[in-house]
Amino acid sequence: MCIPYNKKITILSTLRPVGAFAALCALRPVRALAVSRALRLRVYALLCVLSTALCIRPAFADSMTIGGKEGWSKLSVKRGVAEGTGRFGYPCIELATDSRSADAFTDALFDFEKKPFTDTAGNYTVVKNELLLSGKSAMGKGAALSRGKGGISIHGKRGSLFGSEGHAPSFYIEFWLLPAVAENGEVVFNWRSSRSIGRNVVYQMITASFYQNHLSWTFSNLFDGYEKGDVTLSGITTLIPGTWAHHSIAFDEESGCIEYRVNGMLEAIAYVTSTGRASGSVYPAYFGVPADIELCGKYTGSIDDFRIQKGTYDNAMRQKSEDASTLGYAKYRVSGGRIETQPFLTSVASSLDSVTAVVNEPAETAVRLYVRSGDNIFGWTDSYPAWRPVRNGEAISGVNGLYFQIAADLYPDGNGSHTPSITQIDIDYTVHPLPLPPFTVKAASGDGNVTLSWSHSVDESAGGYYVYYGTRPGEYLGRVAREGSSPVDAGFVQSITLTGLRNGTIYYFAVASYSKLDNRIRGSLSRETYARPEAESTYGK
Protein backbone atom coordinates (compact mmCIF):
# COMPACT_ATOMS: atom_id res chain seq x y z
CA MET A 1 0.00 0.00 0.00
CA CYS A 2 1.46 3.39 -1.00
CA ILE A 3 2.03 6.06 1.63
CA PRO A 4 0.42 9.50 0.97
CA TYR A 5 2.83 12.38 0.79
CA ASN A 6 2.34 16.09 1.36
CA LYS A 7 4.73 18.35 -0.54
CA LYS A 8 4.92 20.69 2.44
CA ILE A 9 6.53 17.94 4.59
CA THR A 10 9.91 16.34 3.82
CA ILE A 11 10.03 12.55 4.05
CA LEU A 12 13.18 10.46 3.73
CA SER A 13 12.32 7.60 1.37
CA THR A 14 13.88 4.15 1.50
CA LEU A 15 16.62 3.65 -1.06
CA ARG A 16 15.60 1.71 -4.14
CA PRO A 17 17.53 -1.58 -4.34
CA VAL A 18 19.61 -0.58 -7.30
CA GLY A 19 20.64 2.72 -5.78
CA ALA A 20 21.44 1.09 -2.45
CA PHE A 21 23.46 -1.67 -4.09
CA ALA A 22 25.38 0.88 -6.13
CA ALA A 23 26.10 2.86 -2.99
CA LEU A 24 27.37 -0.29 -1.29
CA CYS A 25 29.68 -1.10 -4.17
CA ALA A 26 30.95 2.48 -4.24
CA LEU A 27 32.56 2.12 -0.80
CA ARG A 28 36.28 2.75 -0.57
CA PRO A 29 38.23 -0.28 -1.86
CA VAL A 30 39.51 -1.28 1.56
CA ARG A 31 36.03 -1.44 3.07
CA ALA A 32 34.52 -3.03 -0.01
CA LEU A 33 37.00 -5.87 0.17
CA ALA A 34 35.96 -6.48 3.76
CA VAL A 35 32.43 -7.22 2.67
CA SER A 36 32.07 -10.69 1.31
CA ARG A 37 30.29 -11.32 -1.96
CA ALA A 38 27.71 -13.43 -0.12
CA LEU A 39 26.96 -10.59 2.29
CA ARG A 40 26.51 -8.14 -0.54
CA LEU A 41 24.06 -10.45 -2.24
CA ARG A 42 22.13 -10.87 0.99
CA VAL A 43 21.95 -7.10 1.50
CA TYR A 44 20.75 -6.65 -2.06
CA ALA A 45 18.07 -9.29 -1.64
CA LEU A 46 16.97 -7.74 1.64
CA LEU A 47 16.66 -4.31 0.05
CA CYS A 48 14.60 -5.78 -2.78
CA VAL A 49 12.21 -7.34 -0.28
CA LEU A 50 11.96 -4.17 1.80
CA SER A 51 11.38 -1.99 -1.24
CA THR A 52 8.68 -4.31 -2.57
CA ALA A 53 6.99 -4.55 0.82
CA LEU A 54 7.09 -0.87 1.68
CA CYS A 55 6.55 0.52 -1.84
CA ILE A 56 7.22 4.07 -0.81
CA ARG A 57 5.83 5.68 -3.96
CA PRO A 58 4.13 8.80 -2.62
CA ALA A 59 0.86 10.18 -3.92
CA PHE A 60 1.51 13.91 -3.89
CA ALA A 61 -1.11 15.92 -1.99
CA ASP A 62 -0.77 19.27 -3.73
CA SER A 63 -2.73 22.49 -3.37
CA MET A 64 -3.41 25.75 -5.13
CA THR A 65 -4.57 29.08 -3.69
CA ILE A 66 -6.65 31.65 -5.52
CA GLY A 67 -7.26 35.01 -3.91
CA GLY A 68 -5.75 36.07 -0.61
CA LYS A 69 -2.25 37.44 -1.02
CA GLU A 70 -2.13 35.80 -4.47
CA GLY A 71 -4.87 38.10 -5.77
CA TRP A 72 -7.64 37.24 -8.23
CA SER A 73 -5.77 37.27 -11.54
CA LYS A 74 -6.57 33.58 -12.17
CA LEU A 75 -10.29 34.18 -12.75
CA SER A 76 -11.69 33.67 -16.24
CA VAL A 77 -15.24 34.84 -15.44
CA LYS A 78 -16.24 37.77 -13.20
CA ARG A 79 -19.93 38.47 -13.64
CA GLY A 80 -21.77 40.86 -11.36
CA VAL A 81 -18.90 41.01 -8.88
CA ALA A 82 -16.22 43.46 -7.84
CA GLU A 83 -13.12 43.43 -5.67
CA GLY A 84 -13.35 44.74 -2.14
CA THR A 85 -11.39 44.37 1.08
CA GLY A 86 -11.79 41.03 2.81
CA ARG A 87 -10.33 39.31 5.83
CA PHE A 88 -6.82 40.20 6.95
CA GLY A 89 -6.88 43.14 4.53
CA TYR A 90 -6.61 40.95 1.44
CA PRO A 91 -8.67 41.71 -1.68
CA CYS A 92 -11.94 39.82 -1.76
CA ILE A 93 -14.66 39.09 -4.29
CA GLU A 94 -18.05 40.56 -3.45
CA LEU A 95 -21.19 41.48 -5.35
CA ALA A 96 -20.96 44.61 -7.45
CA THR A 97 -23.52 47.22 -6.64
CA ASP A 98 -26.36 47.48 -9.13
CA SER A 99 -24.80 50.39 -10.95
CA ARG A 100 -26.50 51.77 -13.99
CA SER A 101 -25.29 50.82 -17.45
CA ALA A 102 -25.94 52.53 -20.75
CA ASP A 103 -28.23 50.93 -23.32
CA ALA A 104 -29.99 51.99 -26.52
CA PHE A 105 -32.46 54.14 -24.56
CA THR A 106 -29.91 55.88 -22.35
CA ASP A 107 -29.72 59.61 -23.02
CA ALA A 108 -27.15 60.38 -20.33
CA LEU A 109 -25.32 58.43 -17.64
CA PHE A 110 -22.87 59.86 -15.13
CA ASP A 111 -21.72 57.09 -12.79
CA PHE A 112 -19.10 59.28 -11.04
CA GLU A 113 -16.72 56.33 -10.70
CA LYS A 114 -13.62 58.35 -11.53
CA LYS A 115 -12.49 61.77 -12.63
CA PRO A 116 -12.87 63.42 -15.00
CA PHE A 117 -16.62 62.89 -14.82
CA THR A 118 -18.00 62.01 -18.25
CA ASP A 119 -21.22 60.85 -19.84
CA THR A 120 -20.97 57.11 -20.43
CA ALA A 121 -23.62 57.37 -23.15
CA GLY A 122 -21.56 60.03 -24.95
CA ASN A 123 -24.48 62.42 -25.56
CA TYR A 124 -23.53 65.18 -23.12
CA THR A 125 -20.35 67.16 -22.56
CA VAL A 126 -19.21 68.70 -19.30
CA VAL A 127 -19.16 72.49 -19.48
CA LYS A 128 -18.11 73.18 -15.89
CA ASN A 129 -17.42 71.00 -12.89
CA GLU A 130 -16.95 71.83 -9.22
CA LEU A 131 -17.85 68.37 -7.89
CA LEU A 132 -15.30 66.24 -6.07
CA LEU A 133 -14.77 62.49 -6.24
CA SER A 134 -15.94 60.64 -3.13
CA GLY A 135 -15.44 57.03 -2.10
CA LYS A 136 -18.70 56.99 -0.15
CA SER A 137 -20.95 55.73 -2.94
CA ALA A 138 -24.41 54.29 -3.35
CA MET A 139 -23.43 52.30 -6.42
CA GLY A 140 -20.04 51.19 -7.63
CA LYS A 141 -16.92 52.57 -5.97
CA GLY A 142 -17.29 56.30 -6.51
CA ALA A 143 -19.74 59.18 -6.13
CA ALA A 144 -19.65 62.96 -6.62
CA LEU A 145 -19.48 65.32 -3.65
CA SER A 146 -20.88 68.84 -3.75
CA ARG A 147 -19.95 71.45 -1.16
CA GLY A 148 -22.66 73.89 -2.15
CA LYS A 149 -20.27 76.07 -4.15
CA GLY A 150 -21.35 75.05 -7.62
CA GLY A 151 -22.00 71.68 -9.16
CA ILE A 152 -21.55 70.27 -12.64
CA SER A 153 -23.01 71.76 -15.84
CA ILE A 154 -23.59 69.53 -18.85
CA HIS A 155 -24.66 70.36 -22.40
CA GLY A 156 -26.56 67.98 -24.66
CA LYS A 157 -25.38 67.23 -28.16
CA ARG A 158 -27.73 67.37 -31.12
CA GLY A 159 -30.15 64.47 -30.91
CA SER A 160 -30.09 64.23 -27.12
CA LEU A 161 -33.20 65.00 -25.08
CA PHE A 162 -31.98 68.34 -23.71
CA GLY A 163 -29.91 69.11 -26.79
CA SER A 164 -32.80 69.19 -29.27
CA GLU A 165 -35.65 71.64 -29.71
CA GLY A 166 -39.15 70.30 -30.29
CA HIS A 167 -41.55 67.72 -28.97
CA ALA A 168 -39.98 65.27 -26.53
CA PRO A 169 -40.69 61.57 -26.13
CA SER A 170 -41.35 59.79 -22.86
CA PHE A 171 -38.43 60.13 -20.47
CA TYR A 172 -37.36 59.65 -16.90
CA ILE A 173 -34.59 61.06 -14.78
CA GLU A 174 -33.05 59.26 -11.82
CA PHE A 175 -30.20 59.63 -9.35
CA TRP A 176 -29.05 58.79 -5.84
CA LEU A 177 -28.77 61.53 -3.22
CA LEU A 178 -26.99 61.63 0.12
CA PRO A 179 -27.72 65.12 1.50
CA ALA A 180 -25.48 66.56 4.19
CA VAL A 181 -28.35 68.87 5.05
CA ALA A 182 -31.84 69.17 3.58
CA GLU A 183 -32.41 72.88 3.96
CA ASN A 184 -34.94 74.88 2.00
CA GLY A 185 -33.69 76.19 -1.31
CA GLU A 186 -31.03 73.59 -2.00
CA VAL A 187 -31.23 72.83 -5.73
CA VAL A 188 -30.24 69.43 -7.13
CA PHE A 189 -31.46 69.68 -10.75
CA ASN A 190 -31.90 72.88 -12.72
CA TRP A 191 -32.64 73.36 -16.43
CA ARG A 192 -33.74 76.75 -17.80
CA SER A 193 -34.56 77.47 -21.41
CA SER A 194 -37.01 79.37 -23.58
CA ARG A 195 -39.20 78.87 -26.60
CA SER A 196 -41.06 81.14 -28.98
CA ILE A 197 -44.83 80.90 -29.24
CA GLY A 198 -45.92 83.22 -31.99
CA ARG A 199 -44.33 86.58 -31.14
CA ASN A 200 -43.92 85.74 -27.49
CA VAL A 201 -40.91 84.24 -25.75
CA VAL A 202 -41.84 81.80 -23.00
CA TYR A 203 -39.33 80.79 -20.36
CA GLN A 204 -39.13 77.13 -19.40
CA MET A 205 -37.78 75.44 -16.32
CA ILE A 206 -37.35 72.03 -14.70
CA THR A 207 -36.04 72.09 -11.14
CA ALA A 208 -35.67 69.68 -8.24
CA SER A 209 -35.12 71.43 -4.91
CA PHE A 210 -35.50 70.81 -1.19
CA TYR A 211 -38.37 72.16 0.84
CA GLN A 212 -38.86 71.16 4.48
CA ASN A 213 -36.73 67.97 4.15
CA HIS A 214 -38.59 66.85 1.02
CA LEU A 215 -37.57 67.01 -2.62
CA SER A 216 -39.95 68.90 -4.88
CA TRP A 217 -40.06 68.87 -8.70
CA THR A 218 -41.38 71.83 -10.72
CA PHE A 219 -42.14 71.95 -14.47
CA SER A 220 -42.75 75.42 -15.91
CA ASN A 221 -44.09 75.95 -19.45
CA LEU A 222 -42.80 72.57 -20.57
CA PHE A 223 -46.06 71.14 -21.85
CA ASP A 224 -47.40 72.51 -25.11
CA GLY A 225 -50.88 74.02 -24.67
CA TYR A 226 -50.98 73.56 -20.90
CA GLU A 227 -52.09 76.86 -19.34
CA LYS A 228 -52.80 75.91 -15.74
CA GLY A 229 -49.46 77.11 -14.40
CA ASP A 230 -46.57 75.12 -13.03
CA VAL A 231 -46.76 71.37 -12.51
CA THR A 232 -45.31 70.55 -9.08
CA LEU A 233 -44.74 67.14 -7.49
CA SER A 234 -43.53 67.03 -3.89
CA GLY A 235 -42.37 63.99 -1.99
CA ILE A 236 -43.96 62.81 1.23
CA THR A 237 -40.92 60.92 2.55
CA THR A 238 -38.74 62.91 4.92
CA LEU A 239 -35.20 62.76 3.62
CA ILE A 240 -32.64 62.04 6.32
CA PRO A 241 -29.22 63.73 6.06
CA GLY A 242 -26.40 61.22 5.73
CA THR A 243 -28.65 58.54 4.22
CA TRP A 244 -28.70 57.51 0.56
CA ALA A 245 -32.07 57.63 -1.22
CA HIS A 246 -32.99 56.93 -4.83
CA HIS A 247 -35.08 59.53 -6.69
CA SER A 248 -36.79 59.22 -10.08
CA ILE A 249 -39.16 61.41 -12.07
CA ALA A 250 -40.90 60.01 -15.16
CA PHE A 251 -43.13 61.41 -17.92
CA ASP A 252 -45.28 59.20 -20.17
CA GLU A 253 -46.14 60.92 -23.46
CA GLU A 254 -49.08 58.58 -24.11
CA SER A 255 -50.97 59.07 -20.85
CA GLY A 256 -49.58 62.45 -19.78
CA CYS A 257 -48.70 60.90 -16.42
CA ILE A 258 -45.81 62.24 -14.33
CA GLU A 259 -44.63 60.07 -11.43
CA TYR A 260 -42.16 60.90 -8.69
CA ARG A 261 -40.73 58.00 -6.69
CA VAL A 262 -38.32 57.70 -3.77
CA ASN A 263 -36.66 54.33 -3.23
CA GLY A 264 -39.14 52.83 -5.65
CA MET A 265 -42.19 54.03 -3.74
CA LEU A 266 -44.67 56.37 -5.40
CA GLU A 267 -44.50 59.80 -3.74
CA ALA A 268 -46.55 61.98 -6.09
CA ILE A 269 -48.44 61.71 -9.37
CA ALA A 270 -49.86 64.29 -11.79
CA TYR A 271 -51.54 64.24 -15.20
CA VAL A 272 -50.90 66.92 -17.81
CA THR A 273 -54.18 66.30 -19.58
CA SER A 274 -57.25 68.38 -20.35
CA THR A 275 -59.06 66.80 -17.41
CA GLY A 276 -56.14 66.58 -15.00
CA ARG A 277 -56.80 62.87 -14.71
CA ALA A 278 -55.93 59.71 -16.62
CA SER A 279 -58.56 60.55 -19.24
CA GLY A 280 -58.59 63.50 -21.61
CA SER A 281 -56.20 64.96 -24.16
CA VAL A 282 -52.50 64.87 -23.36
CA TYR A 283 -50.38 68.01 -23.46
CA PRO A 284 -47.07 66.93 -25.01
CA ALA A 285 -43.68 67.97 -23.66
CA TYR A 286 -41.92 70.55 -25.79
CA PHE A 287 -38.29 71.50 -25.24
CA GLY A 288 -37.15 74.95 -26.30
CA VAL A 289 -33.69 76.23 -27.12
CA PRO A 290 -30.99 73.75 -26.03
CA ALA A 291 -29.58 74.79 -22.68
CA ASP A 292 -27.26 73.43 -20.02
CA ILE A 293 -28.37 71.20 -17.16
CA GLU A 294 -26.90 72.16 -13.80
CA LEU A 295 -26.61 69.40 -11.20
CA CYS A 296 -26.01 70.15 -7.52
CA GLY A 297 -25.48 73.86 -8.15
CA LYS A 298 -26.84 74.80 -4.71
CA TYR A 299 -26.61 71.51 -2.88
CA THR A 300 -24.43 70.12 -0.11
CA GLY A 301 -23.99 66.36 -0.16
CA SER A 302 -23.29 63.52 -2.58
CA ILE A 303 -24.90 62.35 -5.82
CA ASP A 304 -24.42 59.05 -7.63
CA ASP A 305 -25.53 57.35 -10.85
CA PHE A 306 -27.32 60.25 -12.54
CA ARG A 307 -29.20 58.97 -15.58
CA ILE A 308 -31.63 60.29 -18.19
CA GLN A 309 -33.51 57.60 -20.06
CA LYS A 310 -35.75 57.85 -23.12
CA GLY A 311 -38.80 55.64 -23.37
CA THR A 312 -42.04 54.79 -21.65
CA TYR A 313 -41.65 54.36 -17.94
CA ASP A 314 -43.68 51.18 -17.77
CA ASN A 315 -43.50 48.41 -15.17
CA ALA A 316 -40.78 46.51 -17.02
CA MET A 317 -38.50 49.54 -17.17
CA ARG A 318 -39.30 50.47 -13.58
CA GLN A 319 -38.33 46.98 -12.42
CA LYS A 320 -35.10 47.28 -14.36
CA SER A 321 -34.48 50.72 -12.92
CA GLU A 322 -35.37 50.05 -9.32
CA ASP A 323 -36.80 47.66 -6.79
CA ALA A 324 -40.43 48.75 -6.59
CA SER A 325 -41.16 46.57 -3.57
CA THR A 326 -42.10 48.02 -0.21
CA LEU A 327 -38.56 47.32 0.96
CA GLY A 328 -37.13 49.93 -1.35
CA TYR A 329 -34.26 50.05 -3.78
CA ALA A 330 -32.04 46.97 -4.05
CA LYS A 331 -28.37 47.86 -3.72
CA TYR A 332 -27.30 44.47 -5.10
CA ARG A 333 -28.94 42.46 -7.83
CA VAL A 334 -30.99 39.67 -6.34
CA SER A 335 -29.76 37.41 -9.15
CA GLY A 336 -26.30 37.63 -7.58
CA GLY A 337 -22.92 37.25 -9.25
CA ARG A 338 -20.50 34.55 -10.34
CA ILE A 339 -16.80 33.84 -10.66
CA GLU A 340 -15.01 31.02 -12.47
CA THR A 341 -11.33 30.20 -12.23
CA GLN A 342 -9.20 29.44 -15.22
CA PRO A 343 -8.90 25.67 -15.79
CA PHE A 344 -5.65 24.69 -14.12
CA LEU A 345 -3.37 21.92 -15.28
CA THR A 346 -2.37 19.19 -12.82
CA SER A 347 -1.38 15.65 -13.87
CA VAL A 348 -3.19 12.80 -15.59
CA ALA A 349 -5.96 11.31 -13.45
CA SER A 350 -5.37 13.66 -10.53
CA SER A 351 -8.09 13.60 -7.87
CA LEU A 352 -9.75 16.70 -6.46
CA ASP A 353 -9.89 16.32 -2.67
CA SER A 354 -11.57 19.48 -1.37
CA VAL A 355 -12.31 23.14 -2.03
CA THR A 356 -12.11 25.42 0.99
CA ALA A 357 -13.17 29.05 0.71
CA VAL A 358 -12.65 31.79 3.27
CA VAL A 359 -16.04 33.47 3.10
CA ASN A 360 -18.11 36.05 4.92
CA GLU A 361 -21.84 35.38 4.71
CA PRO A 362 -24.06 37.95 6.43
CA ALA A 363 -27.55 36.78 7.38
CA GLU A 364 -29.57 35.48 4.41
CA THR A 365 -26.65 35.75 1.98
CA ALA A 366 -24.96 32.71 0.49
CA VAL A 367 -21.91 31.45 -1.39
CA ARG A 368 -22.23 28.27 -3.46
CA LEU A 369 -19.20 26.37 -4.80
CA TYR A 370 -18.97 24.23 -7.95
CA VAL A 371 -16.26 22.10 -9.58
CA ARG A 372 -15.67 20.26 -12.83
CA SER A 373 -12.81 18.34 -14.39
CA GLY A 374 -11.64 16.81 -17.66
CA ASP A 375 -8.67 15.82 -19.76
CA ASN A 376 -9.15 18.19 -22.69
CA ILE A 377 -10.35 21.76 -22.14
CA PHE A 378 -10.71 22.63 -25.82
CA GLY A 379 -14.25 21.25 -25.96
CA TRP A 380 -15.41 22.93 -22.77
CA THR A 381 -18.41 25.27 -22.83
CA ASP A 382 -20.32 27.17 -20.15
CA SER A 383 -22.31 24.05 -19.34
CA TYR A 384 -20.03 21.19 -20.49
CA PRO A 385 -18.58 19.41 -18.60
CA ALA A 386 -21.42 19.79 -16.12
CA TRP A 387 -20.71 21.73 -12.95
CA ARG A 388 -20.94 19.73 -9.77
CA PRO A 389 -21.95 21.46 -6.50
CA VAL A 390 -19.66 20.85 -3.52
CA ARG A 391 -19.70 21.89 0.12
CA ASN A 392 -17.13 24.28 1.48
CA GLY A 393 -14.22 22.40 3.05
CA GLU A 394 -15.77 18.94 2.75
CA ALA A 395 -14.12 15.94 1.08
CA ILE A 396 -14.78 15.44 -2.64
CA SER A 397 -14.76 12.11 -4.44
CA GLY A 398 -15.14 11.10 -8.06
CA VAL A 399 -13.71 14.30 -9.57
CA ASN A 400 -10.64 13.28 -11.57
CA GLY A 401 -8.79 14.55 -14.59
CA LEU A 402 -5.93 16.51 -16.03
CA TYR A 403 -7.70 19.87 -15.56
CA PHE A 404 -9.81 21.25 -12.72
CA GLN A 405 -11.99 24.36 -12.65
CA ILE A 406 -13.75 26.01 -9.71
CA ALA A 407 -16.78 28.33 -9.73
CA ALA A 408 -18.68 30.25 -7.07
CA ASP A 409 -22.09 31.91 -7.05
CA LEU A 410 -22.67 34.80 -4.66
CA TYR A 411 -26.20 35.72 -3.55
CA PRO A 412 -27.34 38.78 -1.56
CA ASP A 413 -30.11 38.80 1.00
CA GLY A 414 -33.73 39.11 -0.11
CA ASN A 415 -33.66 42.91 0.13
CA GLY A 416 -30.52 43.13 -1.99
CA SER A 417 -28.89 45.17 0.77
CA HIS A 418 -26.04 42.88 1.91
CA THR A 419 -23.39 40.95 0.01
CA PRO A 420 -21.31 37.89 0.87
CA SER A 421 -17.60 37.89 0.10
CA ILE A 422 -14.81 35.43 -0.70
CA THR A 423 -11.31 36.27 0.48
CA GLN A 424 -9.51 33.10 -0.58
CA ILE A 425 -10.09 29.70 -2.19
CA ASP A 426 -7.80 26.76 -1.38
CA ILE A 427 -7.93 23.81 -3.78
CA ASP A 428 -6.49 20.51 -2.54
CA TYR A 429 -5.86 17.67 -4.95
CA THR A 430 -3.83 14.47 -5.21
CA VAL A 431 -1.35 13.73 -7.98
CA HIS A 432 -0.88 9.98 -8.27
CA PRO A 433 2.71 8.66 -8.53
CA LEU A 434 4.28 7.42 -11.73
CA PRO A 435 5.04 3.70 -11.34
CA LEU A 436 8.62 2.48 -11.67
CA PRO A 437 9.61 0.58 -14.84
CA PRO A 438 10.79 -3.04 -14.83
CA PHE A 439 14.43 -3.30 -13.77
CA THR A 440 15.46 -5.72 -16.50
CA VAL A 441 14.12 -6.21 -20.03
CA LYS A 442 15.37 -8.95 -22.36
CA ALA A 443 14.75 -9.43 -26.07
CA ALA A 444 14.98 -12.70 -28.04
CA SER A 445 14.67 -12.56 -31.82
CA GLY A 446 12.77 -15.03 -33.95
CA ASP A 447 11.53 -15.39 -37.50
CA GLY A 448 9.62 -12.14 -38.05
CA ASN A 449 9.15 -11.67 -34.34
CA VAL A 450 10.81 -10.66 -31.10
CA THR A 451 9.91 -12.00 -27.68
CA LEU A 452 10.36 -9.54 -24.84
CA SER A 453 10.48 -10.54 -21.19
CA TRP A 454 10.94 -8.50 -18.06
CA SER A 455 10.76 -8.66 -14.32
CA HIS A 456 7.73 -7.19 -12.64
CA SER A 457 8.09 -3.64 -11.43
CA VAL A 458 8.88 -3.46 -7.72
CA ASP A 459 6.30 -0.67 -7.54
CA GLU A 460 3.08 -1.96 -6.02
CA SER A 461 1.05 0.68 -7.88
CA ALA A 462 1.94 -0.84 -11.28
CA GLY A 463 -1.11 -2.30 -12.98
CA GLY A 464 0.33 -3.23 -16.38
CA TYR A 465 2.97 -2.49 -18.98
CA TYR A 466 3.35 -0.59 -22.22
CA VAL A 467 5.86 -1.95 -24.74
CA TYR A 468 7.50 0.66 -26.96
CA TYR A 469 9.31 -0.27 -30.15
CA GLY A 470 10.92 1.38 -33.16
CA THR A 471 13.80 1.14 -35.62
CA ARG A 472 15.99 3.91 -34.18
CA PRO A 473 17.46 4.18 -30.67
CA GLY A 474 15.22 6.23 -28.42
CA GLU A 475 12.56 6.66 -31.12
CA TYR A 476 9.70 4.26 -30.56
CA LEU A 477 7.47 4.95 -33.54
CA GLY A 478 6.88 1.39 -34.68
CA ARG A 479 3.66 0.54 -36.49
CA VAL A 480 4.24 -2.82 -38.19
CA ALA A 481 3.65 -5.30 -35.36
CA ARG A 482 0.40 -7.23 -35.56
CA GLU A 483 -0.12 -6.50 -31.87
CA GLY A 484 -0.46 -2.80 -32.65
CA SER A 485 1.42 0.43 -33.01
CA SER A 486 3.85 1.54 -30.35
CA PRO A 487 3.18 1.49 -27.45
CA VAL A 488 1.48 -1.88 -27.11
CA ASP A 489 -0.56 -2.52 -23.97
CA ALA A 490 0.78 -5.87 -22.76
CA GLY A 491 -1.34 -6.00 -19.62
CA PHE A 492 -0.02 -7.24 -16.29
CA VAL A 493 2.27 -9.93 -17.72
CA GLN A 494 6.00 -10.47 -17.91
CA SER A 495 6.46 -11.24 -21.58
CA ILE A 496 5.03 -10.56 -25.00
CA THR A 497 5.91 -11.58 -28.55
CA LEU A 498 5.65 -8.92 -31.23
CA THR A 499 4.96 -10.49 -34.60
CA GLY A 500 4.90 -9.19 -38.15
CA LEU A 501 8.33 -7.61 -37.84
CA ARG A 502 10.71 -7.41 -40.82
CA ASN A 503 13.60 -9.87 -40.78
CA GLY A 504 17.00 -8.23 -40.93
CA THR A 505 15.75 -4.97 -39.42
CA ILE A 506 17.00 -4.03 -36.00
CA TYR A 507 14.34 -2.99 -33.49
CA TYR A 508 14.78 -1.14 -30.22
CA PHE A 509 12.52 -1.74 -27.24
CA ALA A 510 11.66 -0.24 -23.86
CA VAL A 511 8.94 -1.02 -21.32
CA ALA A 512 7.03 1.37 -19.05
CA SER A 513 4.66 0.56 -16.21
CA TYR A 514 1.23 2.12 -15.91
CA SER A 515 -0.79 2.64 -12.77
CA LYS A 516 -3.47 0.25 -11.60
CA LEU A 517 -5.55 3.37 -10.86
CA ASP A 518 -5.56 4.60 -14.46
CA ASN A 519 -3.64 3.32 -17.47
CA ARG A 520 -3.03 6.92 -18.55
CA ILE A 521 -0.68 7.28 -15.59
CA ARG A 522 2.46 5.84 -17.11
CA GLY A 523 5.94 5.95 -15.66
CA SER A 524 9.38 6.35 -17.16
CA LEU A 525 10.90 3.93 -19.64
CA SER A 526 13.12 1.01 -18.75
CA ARG A 527 16.59 0.59 -20.13
CA GLU A 528 16.55 0.14 -23.86
CA THR A 529 17.23 -3.27 -25.44
CA TYR A 530 17.32 -4.39 -29.06
CA ALA A 531 16.96 -7.43 -31.32
CA ARG A 532 17.08 -8.21 -35.05
CA PRO A 533 14.49 -10.75 -36.31
CA GLU A 534 15.83 -13.31 -38.76
CA ALA A 535 14.60 -16.40 -40.56
CA GLU A 536 15.47 -19.77 -39.06
CA SER A 537 18.69 -21.14 -40.53
CA THR A 538 18.46 -24.38 -42.58
CA TYR A 539 22.22 -24.88 -42.53
CA GLY A 540 23.16 -28.49 -41.68
CA LYS A 541 19.64 -29.86 -42.12
Automatic annotation (TrEMBL):
Q: Which SUPFAM superfamilies match?
A: Concanavalin A-like lectins/glucanases (SSF49899), Fibronectin type III (SSF49265)
**Alphabetized InterPro entries for the sequence:** ConA-like_dom_sf (IPR013320), FN3_dom (IPR003961), FN3_sf (IPR036116), Ig-like_fold (IPR013783)
Name by which UniProt lists this protein: Fibronectin type III domain protein
TM region(s), chain numbering: 42-60
Where would one find the signal peptide in this protein?
Answer: none
Give the domain of life: Bacteria
Residues of the Fibronectin type-III domain: 434-536
Keywords annotated in UniProt: Membrane, Transmembrane, Transmembrane helix
Classification of source organism: Bacteria, Pseudomonadati, Spirochaetota, Spirochaetia, Spirochaetales
